[in-house]
Specification:
The protein has 125 residues and is mainly α. The protein folds into two domains: 16-52, no CATH class; 64-125. It contains four helices and no strands. It has helices at 10-33, 37-45, 50-58, 65-124. The radius of gyration is 36 Å and the shape is elongated.
Length: 125
């Protein structure tokens, strides 16, 4: 008896790809965000596991991962803000220095212009 070769349509190949790719993408993004992908999935579906409730009672003295993540993010943003403030202060100082240099150059140009006018008057007479 001849075996028939299994043929897959384009939709079935696409569907199989999504079944494999989307969960991998979800867990990868959750990992990059610093979250627990399985717990997030359980929260979305509404499954309450007895293991997670036991872990919460045991680790009641420690901060949850999301709170630690938020505190870390706040600290990072505060450091970034401080760095931006320092940079802004440096730019203000540089701006003031350049204004002073421009004023000095303008005064020097006026002085040279006056000297040139006196030289022209002296030569012209």
């Amino acid at each position: 008896m001849a075996k028939r070769k299994l043929q897959m349509t384009a939709f079935s190949r696409f569907f199989l790809f999504l079944i494999i790719f989307l969960p991998s993408l979800f867990f990868g993004v959750s990992y990059l965000k610093g979250e627990d992908g399985m717990q997030t999935l359980k929260d979305l579906i509404g499954i309450e596991s007895t293991e997670s409730s036991n872990n919460e009672s045991v680790s009641s003295g420690t901060k949850p991962a999301s709170e630690t993540f938020v505190n870390g993010e706040v600290k990072r943003l505060q450091d970034e803000l401080d760095e931006k403030d320092r940079r802004l202060k440096d730019l203000y100082q540089e701006n003031e220095l350049l204004k002073k240099q421009a004023d000095d150059a303008k005064a020097e140009l006026e002085e040279v212009t006056k000297q040139l006018e006196t030289i022209k008057k002296a030569i012209g007479q």
